[in-house]
Amino acid sequence: MRRRPVLPLFVSASLFVSASLVGTGGALVLAPAPALAEPGPTLEVDLAADRHPISPHIYGMNFTDEALAEELALPVRRWGGNATTRYHYRYDTTNRASDWFFENIAEANDNPEALPDGSSTDRFVEQDRRTGTDTVLTVPLIGWAPKARDGSCGFSVAKYGPQQSTDEWRPDCGNGVRPDGTRVTGNDPLDTSVPVGPEYVREWLGHLTAKYGTAAEGGVKFYNLDNEPDIWHSTHRDVHPTGASSAELRDQAYAIGAAIKEADPTAATLGPVGWGWTSWDHSGLDQEVCGRTGCWANPPDRPARDGLPFTTWYLQQMKKYDDEHGQRVLDYFDMHFYPQASGVAFGNGNDPATNTLRLRSTRALWDPSYTDESWINTQVRLVPRMKELVAANYPGTKTAITEYNWGALDHVNGALTQADVLGIFGREGLDLATLWAPPGATQPGAYAFRMYRNYDGAGGRFGDVGVRATSADQEKLSVYAAERTDDGALTVMVVNKSGAEQTSELSLRGRTASTAKVYRYGAADLTSIVRAPDQQIVVPSPGAGAPSGHLTHIYPADSVTLFVVDRPTPPASSLTVGYRNLDRSPTDAEIRPAIRLENSGAVPVDLSRVTVRYWFTRDSGRSPMQAWCDRASLGCAKVTRRVVALPTPRPGADGYLEVGFTPGAGVVPTAGQVGPLELRLRKADRSRFSESDDHSWRAAGPNFEPSTRVTVYLDGLRIAGVEP
């Protein structure tokens, strides 16, 4: 007997098979000096530059199976896609829309009488709780959900006449297209669905929070405001045949976002979840009408947005709601992105030209000099564009890409590309990303994630504080670097995209060590991450502008190489700091520390390796901080400044002013000093400080005196002073 196939929301490409992650062999043997081949581009990592947190949520996936999620300690997993737009939690049923004959299909459930307990979404959340993964669930904005746990469909042949294609297991369910190619119109949404709105969302979240707690209590952390609502007129045209207008998308986001916040104020929302590049400028109404008439130069919904691109207007409208109601209904600006060049997204790795294009096309995520090689045909620079749009129109909103796919995840080319994408996400400061769809556990694409999340089979991870990493030719060797907070290790990921072996020098600034551990995945072995021999690091003599160390390494063709450089034991300190308070009022609107560095050692110390931190409390609010160098003996142009807010306040400090020095700033000479450096801190709103309880503060006096409360660091290691 022929049976209708079971249609889960997502079918994994392969069942999980346990695989060896780490090869065996001489892991502790230093590699011999390499036989130099054709030189590759020079690489450089600077631990003191461009430091920024890397969100763990960039390493997410949609519908990952439990074994792989557990192995990767998957940070976030999304329940999304077309079917989730129309889901009824009480019936555990989705409508598959244009994906499958607009049918209501009940999810597999051993005990439907117990619903809503035990639904597929309950089980999704429960898997995430077992693996320590944060959940993204999709909630409906479309206004419809399946009417029952039944097999009804949007375009019944008996009711609406013959159609071009029907479900062979349910021949009454058609695709909504007549034999002459015209679409069936005027069908009744009630054939499959019932109206749902904010009350439905509140009830569903009430069910979830009652079972799993609020987001703050370990329950569902994220909610997508539907899925690609700007193409409902295509994917869900049986209930929404016209394109969604800007006003509809805004008003539904207001209503459903507010319902989410009412049910769980600690949960985060993500929107507008547009399908791709066209969604940036155009509403669903624009896309539906112009798709038929070619009106792209003058779309019909543009006047309703005062001529603005849709995403600009949308963010402004979300901010307007916040300003008027004192409540965010949008926490993450979320847009999907699939590369549009032929054969890339969801493609295979069989064509060399497409493989080269796939690797090159990741530049669309960041590179202002790259013109996208598809119908997009412009500079995309997706992640910086997202961050700039948010900063200009709704500051404080985070950024997300909850669907993307560069293809060939079953091929080493896809693994290289995916490793490059993850590195770009971290470097550019994206807040959340979930791959659609996950690779099988034994596929090369899974190893790209392992290189960042479990490179040694024992939970070894790429760092969580990004630092500057540059390549003289990013198209041959791309490089990403980050420091790991828990143990201070420096991790450096190098992706060889050139198709040929590359021998390159890597310079390290701010980290002195004699060796680096080496882990590699690539075409030479697609079944494991190999622990290669340790790499020797050459440590040059200290000197102004000189790197802390450098290494020369051979990067095999089609490979991803990870260096792990442990944090060394802090060196014996030869530097001390003198401090003088130039501000005689501890309650005015300024903090004015002056510092002086003294070297009692026998070797000059390169200033570019030194940082100094002055610890303080911001007091009375969270206005942005401003920092100046008023005067410096070596010139303020050679002095860097940044104010860092602590994620968790400490006694006497909720932030610090970090002072550093540019390359070429010089040295602290033997038995000599550098200073004074006269500094100034102020809040943008000019509100007052209360300095007397600050960790580094001391009453104003006429002279510099040694301070143990102003801390000094060499190559990122504290060598003088006591932190709060």
From TrEMBL:
Any one GO MF annotation of this record: hydrolase activity
Keywords, sorted A to Z: Hydrolase
Domain of life, source organism: Bacteria
The keyword Hydrolase appears for this protein: yes
Residue segments, region Disordered: 166-195
Annotated ranges, domain CBM3: 571-724
Gene3D superfamilies referenced in this protein's UniProt entry, alphabetically: Endoglucanase-like, Glycosidases, Golgi alpha-mannosidase II
Entry protein name: Glycoside hydrolase family 44 protein
Classification via InterPro entries: CBM2/CBM3_carb-bd_dom_sf, CBM3, CBM3_sf, GH, GH44_cat, Glyco_hydro_b
One Pfam family cited in the UniProt record for this chain: CBM_3
